[in-house]
Amino acid sequence: MKNKKITHGVLSIKLKVTILVTIFIILAVFVNFIYIFNASHTTLKTTTEDSLCNIVDSQCDYIEKAIEKVNASMSYMNGSEDMFVCVQANGERRELEVSAALKKYISQNNDYESITLVSAENGVAVSSTDEKLRMKDYSQEAFVQKILESKQPAQSNVFLSDTGEALISLGVPQQSHFDEEILTGVLFITIKVSLLADTISNLKVMDSDTSFAYLCDQSGTYIYHPDASLVGKSADIPIVKALAEKIKNGEQPETDVEENKIEGVSQYLAYSVSDVNDWIFCVGISEKEVLAPIEDMKKNAVLSSLIIIIVLSAFAYIFSSTISVPIKKVTSIVLKTSELDLTVDESYRKVMKQKDEVGEMARAIQKMRATFREMMHSISQSSEALSGSADCLRGIANTVNDNASDNLATTEELSVRMEDSARSTQMISEDIKKIEASTQLISQKAADGLELSATIMERAGGLKSTTQIANENTKVLYESVKAETAEALLQSRSVDKINELANTIMEIADETSLLSLNASIEAARAGEAGRGFAVVAGEIGHLAEQSSRTVVHITDIVEEVNLSVKKMEKCLTKILEFLDASVVKDYIQFIEMSEKYSQDATYVNHTMDNIDQSINKLNTTMLDISKAISEISISVSEVSEGVTNVSEKNADIVSMTDDTYKMVQQTIEYANSLKNIVDKFKLSN
């Protein structure tokens, strides 16, 4: 069978792989480009900022050194004695010498405008190379005040000359020759601003024509600006204003770079504040100028990226052929299989030897085709065998149909007889259940009797135990009362001792009374001296009489106690006689009756237990009989149902035999149809 050409409405694998690889290349180049661009932008920005900071720092150092150089030369002149004397005399002494020295200094420095000496006492210029300035009052000049207060060099703000040229004054303090802590005057030089800005005007950043630089004093006034018309005016730049405000508040801003926007143009503006005079030096450059190399690099990178993408895409297209060609061969064999052509094909043997996924797929297809060929051969053979088996099955079905008809009649007769047996066993089962119910009732009554006899027996035992305990307690009580009574009678004899003590006390009272009488007689004989003794004798007599009365009272109480003890003795004797004669004998008789009652309860319990056991045995036997009858009934029912099922199944067999015969016919037809299907497959060349 001839292979058809493969046509699709979508892109081929070769083109898909090429496009996919190209997309990955573009993504990789784009990511790399973005990374390099950002890194370059950051690096260039950092480098530019560092360069700007270095420029402003170095320029500030240059200006500071230039000012220090001028200050040093003025300090040298300040040390002359002529200047000291002139200032001290307010210009009235040695003014000519000082004026000559100042003019000589100016002649040696042609770039300087003038030099002036001011008295610290009144702030008046005592000498100057410019006659217009001599005797001028400088006491309100800010830089002069600052020098006098700080005793350090200082500079004035920018001011314009008569010709409109920007000038600035640099001043140093003059110290007293007698005390260095006392200032006697100020010497200052007026110079053109351009002298300090000579290097600023030629300053360029990165050789850019758009770079610029300007110098401002601490208040933000331009000392130098590329536009000369702005010199002496306040800078209208937010960054400079903010720096001037910080300086005014006593802060010292660090060198830094900030982005500034003027008329919509972005700039990098670097600034540095002088440590000597707080002047602000700024250098700036256009951001566009700084980033110009980045833009050039961007264009070059885009061009090189396009070249790389084209080259790599071409390479990917060529490389994709190594994937698409084997896949095409595998696809052709798949199409051949779809057309039921299973003949051996050697055209993709080379592809099968590959170690990649395509080779795996080719080997799997080859294995599938071989399996299909084997299956088709097996189906063909099975179809032929199926036709022969169907013929045999047709004869067997006829025989089974005849036998099933005979079995059907027999099972119907057997079913009727089994139904009669089932009804008889059902009646017997119902009678057994009635007997079982009666037996269970008797068993329940016997169990109740047994439980009652056990209760009686338990109560008899409890009564006997209680009686024995009471008897023992009574005996203990009897012995205890008897012993305690004897002891109490014995202790009551101690009352007689109280009588003896009372008699003794009575005798002592009599003797005391006699002694009191003798004492009274002797006191009367003594007269006035024995009066106190007579009082004591009287008290002793009274005490003797009171003791006699107390003894009489004690004697009466003892007689009452003896009388009570004798009565209590008689009562206790009667109680002991009653306990011994009546209570103990009654408890003994009660124990004997409890014993007999317990024996009778034990006999009743034993008898009821025997009856209960007999009833339980009878009940068990009836249950076994009932269970056996039930099982027989169930068995008969099951047999009856089984016979009925057999009868129904025989009827089904007869019906199914006809169906089987029809299915045999269909099987033969299916076998022929299966053979026709197998014939459609091309299994060999």
TrEMBL record:
- Asked if the keyword Amino-acid biosynthesis belongs to this entry, the reply reads no
Q: Which residues form the HAMP domain?
A: 321-377
Residue ranges spanning the membrane: these are: 17-37, 301-319
Name this polypeptide is given? Methyl-accepting chemotaxis protein
Species the sequence originates in: Anaeromicropila populeti
Q: Which GO terms describe its cellular component?
A: plasma membrane
Where's the Methyl-accepting transducer domain?
396-647
Listed InterPro entries: dCache_1 (IPR033479), HAMP_dom (IPR003660), MCPsignal_dom (IPR004089)
Q: Lineage in the entry?
A: Bacteria, Bacillati, Bacillota, Clostridia, Lachnospirales
Q: Which PANTHER family match?
A: LYSOZYME-LIKE PROTEIN-RELATED, METHYL-ACCEPTING CHEMOTAXIS PROTEIN MCPB
Keyword check for Cell membrane, yes or no. Answer: yes
Q: Where in the cell is it found?
A: Cell membrane
Q: Which family does it belong to?
A: Belongs to the methyl-accepting chemotaxis (MCP) protein family.
| Swiss-Prot/TrEMBL keywords | Cell membrane, Chemotaxis, Membrane, Transducer, Transmembrane, Transmembrane helix
**Recorded coiled-coil stretches:** none
Give a GO biological-process term: signal transduction
The membrane topology of this protein is: Multi-pass membrane protein
